[in-house]
Amino acid sequence: MPRTDDSTPHDNTPHGAPPAPPRRSDATRAAILDAARERFATDGYERATIRAIARDARIDPSMVMRYYGNKEGLFAAAVSVDLELPDLTALPREEAGRALVTHFLDMWEENDVLTALLRVGATNRAGAERMQGIFRDQVLPVARQVCPDPEQAPARAALAATQLLGLALTRYVLRFPPTVALPRGEVVAWLAPTLQRYLTAPSP
């Protein structure tokens, strides 16, 4: 008569054992992102290619497309952007608008990644989500520093973003000649009062 055993199988993995090795797909994704960051930093967004990134990662280009869809999706997944926004609580409240416009001009003109991300964000879902994350995690907390009503901070920060992103789009992406030709001082003089009003003026 065959022997039956109703006992529950035991887990023979010792406590404190090292975790299971990462899945191959995780390692592949990590290799793609590492190669993409290097390639985007070296060649810039326009010149970097899926084929070159795949070669750097030592995988077939079809694998890049499988995980990220296209170059725009890969770029949005790979880039990390720290706006390094100023602490507005350390400034007189009436200087918040000028400080932000000046800071963003510095960032846009010195950081090609921001311009590329704006271009991608206008046409690609992953890029748009990355831009939304930057707004939520970096711009909104700064707006809360000077907003007179905390409940209005999201709307006020969004209005400020319309000005800053509109400037960046027309000056650095679409390159409207009159916008490109504006000296920095004039850009600040025009936009700073508008940002100041959006962030600190009484609600209309």
What would you note in describing this structure?
The chain is an all-alpha fold and 204 residues long. It has helices at 24-47, 50-57, 61-68, 71-78, 96-110, 112-121, 125-146, 153-173, 177-181, 184-200.
Quick gist of this model?
The chain has 204 residues and is an all-alpha fold. It has helices at 24-47, 50-57, 61-68, 71-78, 96-110, 112-121, 125-146, 153-173, 177-181, 184-200.
Please name the defining characteristics of this protein.
204 residues; 10 helices
Global Rg: 24 Å
Portion in beta strands: under 5%
Terminal CA distance? 88 Å
Main pleated sheet:
none
The gross shape turns out to be elongated
Could you give the count of β-strands?
0
Return residue spans where pLDDT drops below 50 for at least 5 consecutive residues. 1-11
Query: Average pLDDT across residues?
Result: 89
> What structural category characterises the helix and strand content?
mainly alpha
Report the order of strands and helices: HHHHHHHHHH
Write the layout of secondary structure elements.
Elements: H1 24-47, H2 50-57, H3 61-68, H4 71-78, H5 96-110, H6 112-121, H7 125-146, H8 153-173, H9 177-181, H10 184-200
